[in-house]
Design brief:
The chain is an all-beta fold. It has one domain: ApaG domain (Immunoglobulin-like), CATH 2.60.40. Strand 4 and strand 5 form a beta hairpin. The two termini are 20 Å apart.
């Protein structure tokens, strides 16, 4: 698990390897990740949007951005948390993800970024 705190918002990420499959005559490696967002600040906040950079061992880079997470824009009061699971496909057994969430402080209406720590994606059978 990796963790990082930005502006009182704690991000924790756990990853899993889900398996391999063929798509368009290429092998793909499926990874899952579970993100927990915990508001350790004194203000209520809302997650407005996300931005991810996904890298694999073959130097392929994918950028993903959009509103909220899995169709939600959760509001977190002080001490509250939100956990969700998602996943990605790579064309190699190793990779990494990193990014940030764009948040709104609902008390001040200020926008701010919360950084998602870089985390590794690796197929366990590919490790020595």
């Amino acid at each position: 698990m990796v963790q990082q705190v930005t502006s009182g918002i704690k991000i924790s990420v756990e990853t899993t390897f889900e398996g391999t499959f063929y798509k368009n005559y290429k092998v793909h490696f499926a990874f899952g990740y579970r993100v927990s967002i915990e508001n350790q600040s004194k203000d209520s906040v809302q997650l407005a949007s996300r931005y991810w950079t996904i890298l694999d061992a073959l130097n392929n880079v994918e950028t993903v951005e959009g509103d909220g997470v899995i169709g939600q824009q959760p509001v977190l009061g002080p001490g509250a948390s939100h956990t969700y699971s998602s996943g990605c496909l790579l064309t190699s057994p190793f990779g990494a993800m990193q990014g940030h969430y764009n948040m709104i402080n609902l008390n001040t209406q200020d926008d701010f970024k919360v950084f998602i720590p870089s985390f590794k994606l690796s197929a366990p059978y590919a490790l020595n």
